[in-house]
Amino acid sequence: MKTGSISTAAQQLYVSQPTVSRLLSDLELSTGLKLFDRRQGKIDVRPEAFAFYEGVEKVFLGANYLRRVAEEIRNDIGVRLRVGAFPAFGLTLMPEIIATFHGDFPKASFALTVATSPSLSESVASGTTDIVVVAGTPNLPGTEIMRHFSAPCMCILKADDPLAAQDGIDLHGFAKRNIIWLNSHSNVESALRRSVQIDTISSAGSLYVNLADTACRLVAMGLGIGVIDPVTALSLPVQNLVVRRLQPEVKFEFSILCSEKLVLSPAAKSFLARVATKCEEVERQSSVQPV
Fold first, then answer.
1. Would you say 111 and 80 are in contact if contact means Cβ atoms under 8 Å apart?
2. Sequence-ordered alpha helix ranges (H) in 171-221
3. Residue 290 gets which letter from DSSP?
4. In whole angstroms, how far apart are CA 115 and each of 7, 41, 129, 227?
5. pLDDT tens for residues 191-230?
6. Sheet holding 131-135: strands in order across?
7. Helices 94-104 and 266-286: angle between axes, nearest 10 degrees
8. Residue 133's beta-bridge partner residues?
9. Whole-angstrom Cα distance, residue 281 to residue 153?
10. Taking each helix axis from N to C terminus, what angle separates 17-31 and 6-13, rounded to the nearest 10 degrees?
11. Distance CA 156, CA 38 (A)
12. In whole angstroms, what is the distance from residue 270 CA to residue 98 CA?
């Protein structure tokens, strides 16, 4: 197929021309296919040969792949981590974690998924993801909470908002303003409603968005005051916004979730430790009064 000539193929294989001719005849006999038309030492490739050759190539590629995997396992470099994080963490902090990890484990490979916490939790339970950072403390069969963290929820306002002059924001002071919630963190709204009896305040209404980034942009456009997670508050994606603490304080819970079947290699343990360190930083930095 590659040389178009039986004699040239024989030279490249370091065998005789009759040997190659016999091998081709045996192949055609065993497959029941006529693969080539022969003429004076040359061969014309038939359509059947093209189709059969494609299948042969796939077999060789598969064999080469398995050999490469075996070599990686022997050399302890076949580390493959399937990780994930809820959007605020995955878009801001996880790339930094992966970059530093890659410096120490340059041959490790990653599959990073940024998705909602319920989706990530289910992926760990089903065994399709190894390590994830999720909002809340999910308890699903086949999963294990490796570490649990909490940090205060934050309020975001436009920098020129009169309420921005305050150190802390009491939701009772919103005075007919829209409140922008993250509907993926409904536990935050529930906790706030219980804490400050939000149903009794005279807000203009509630807006629900899927991503904290969207909430920030809506606030910047003057559509209301946002209540967001502390991860997004530490790295505001929009300019001319300020972060203020909510009063009373309401905690945002988040966890590192792993598959119960995950065997922690030295590389996986190192990655897990880096994620935990970054989560601890979120807790520590959020305890400082934002400005």
1. yes
2. 186-196, 212-220
3. P
4. 58, 61, 12, 20
5. 555 555 555 544 556 788 878 888 899 999 988 888 888 9
6. 109-114, 80-85, 131-135, 251-259, 143-152
7. 140
8. 85, 256
9. 15
10. 110
11. 79
12. 11
d(CA 177, CA 159): 16
Residue type, 160: D
- Sign, CA torsion 4/6/11/13: positive
pLDDT score of 79 more than 90: no
- Between strands 225-228 and 109-114, the pairing is unpaired
Distance CA 169, CA 191 (A): 16
CB 82 within 8 A of CB 129: yes
CA distance 246 to 39: 87
Both tokens of 122, joined, read 């289910």
**3-state class (DSSP) for residue 287:** coil
How many residues belong to the chain? 291
Distance of alpha carbon 149 from alpha carbon 137, whole angstroms: 9
Q: CA 149 to CA 45: how far, in whole Å?
A: 66
Closest to 192 in 3D by CA, of 202, 181, 208, 184: 181
237-271 tens-digit pLDDT: 888 999 998 877 778 899 999 988 777 878 888 99
Q: What is the dihedral of CA 63, 65, 70, 76, to 10 degrees?
A: 170
Tell me 235's DSSP state. Answer: T
Q: Whose structure tokens read 């197929």?
A: 1
pTM over 0.85: no
The two tokens of residue 64 are 């080469």
Contact 166, 244 (CB under 8 A): yes
Q: Which two tokens stand for residue 256?
A: 């590192």
Mapping DSSP to helix (H, G, I), strand (E, B) and coil, where does residue 125 land? helix
Name the one residue in this structure whose structure tokens are 């989560």: 279
The strand pairing partners of 148, in sequence order, are 255
Query: Is the distance from CB of 157 to CB of 164 less than 8 angstroms?
Result: yes
Using DSSP's 3-state secondary structure scheme, residue 10 falls into helix
